[in-house]
């Protein structure tokens, strides 16, 4: 697995890797990139985020893609990507493999509070073909949090909740709040608990 | 790949509070109380001057927000640059964790302070507006609508009720405090009593032990004395038995023919058994 990953890594050119600081930020504006294969509900989530954002005074631009790296044609006109959301559908194996290959085209800076994984269809276990453990392993490998939610048509409230949550994170990345995304990312982790845990096991 | 965007509504953004504040009559009054030091004159202003003043305030707020945003971007960029320049060292990982924990606790303190300050500010603003509504005389140049008598009465009643509740709360607090003091006093007394009881118990225990010791000693002396007396008495009895026997032998009486004498001789021959 490590050898395969190394081979895949060598195929990605340095200029194709998405970086957060290679373009200037824009005041009161933010751009979110939703990465998810077909059928994962990226369009619905994008619409929900835009609907939720109308009350906040933020000019939100949501871009969706089914794979990374992004095409070079729009590279000049494309604004700085402030936040990346990787969507994994547990009933769709392709979505997981898409995300696995997409994370390799993203600079490590994004995994310091400027990216997250969204896991859908986590409730019903009968038709899942992606294990939750695989997702958590991927999230641990990239030190990034994952959020479980619902995006499909019948889950309006859950979709809105998820959109709200993502919007809070996007606002932090865009510099609208008094904290940096790195600080928010650090405060999500409980370093104290890890220390206490080791003490418990040594006793 | 598709693109979607949103258009924002116009709102006044207060960066200090980090939330949009809708423009309304009450908030303009509160904004005046906060930003009064910025305005050039404190006297009564005309309508046009008021509008200009509000525009200036909005512009200033926007500029301040932009300044803060630029500062945050600068801090982030500098932090990223510093991180890239530093080489990762395993020995300092624990130090980094410790400093992060310390900073997290500092952050929590600061955020709670900020929340408290925000609450206080809101309360002051509400109080200011309320006092102006209740007590200010109507101004002919003011463009705001006067609250009706009914509203004033309602607010007055609410304030009265609040006063009564606060007064009752104060009374309950005092009662609780007195009860607490009494409880502490009683606890202290019971503790002292316990200590005294323990002392007395130890003394009682000591005395009991002494008494037991003494009684054991006495009993052993008594027993010895009684035993010796008994020995003496038995030896006396046996010597008297022998003397009596000798007397009967010496009298040359045929004691075997008399059954009574026979029994007597036999009983005088058996040693005393007590």
Q: CATH class of chain A, anyone?
A: Alpha Beta
How much β-strand is present in the residues of chain A? Answer: 15-25%
Assembly status: heterodimer
Uncertain spans of chain A: 1-10, 191-203
Estimate the global geometry of chain A from the Cα principal axes.
Answer: globular
CATH architecture of chain A: 3-Layer(aba) Sandwich
Radius of gyration of chain B, rounded? 54 Å
- Assign an overall shape of chain B: elongated
- Poorly predicted ranges of chain B: 1-43
User: What is the helical fraction of chain B, as a range of percent?
Assistant: over 70%
Number of DSSP strands of chain A? 5
Protein name (chain A): Centromere protein M
Pfam families (chain A): CENP-M
Keywords (chain A): Centromere, Chromosome, Nucleus
InterPro entries (chain A): Centromere_Cenp-M, P-loop_NTPase
Write a short abstract of this structure.
Chain A is built from 7 helices and 5 strands.
Describe the overall structure.
- Chain A: Keywords: Centromere, Chromosome, Nucleus.
- Chain A: Its main location: nucleus.
- Chain A: InterPro entries: Centromere_Cenp-M, P-loop_NTPase.
- The complex is a heterodimer of chains A (203) and B (274).
- Chain A is an alpha/beta fold and 203 residues long.
- Chain A contains 7 helices and 5 strands, in the order αβαββαβαβααα.
- In chain A, α2 links the parallel β1 and β2.
- Chain B is mainly alpha-helical and 274 residues long.
- Chain B has a two-stranded antiparallel ribbon.
- In chain B, β2 and β3 form a beta hairpin.
- In chain B, α1 crosses α3.
- The N terminus of chain B is likely disordered.
- At the A-B interface, α2, β2, α6 and α7 of A face β1, α2 and α3 of B.
- β2 of chain A pairs antiparallel with β1 of chain B.
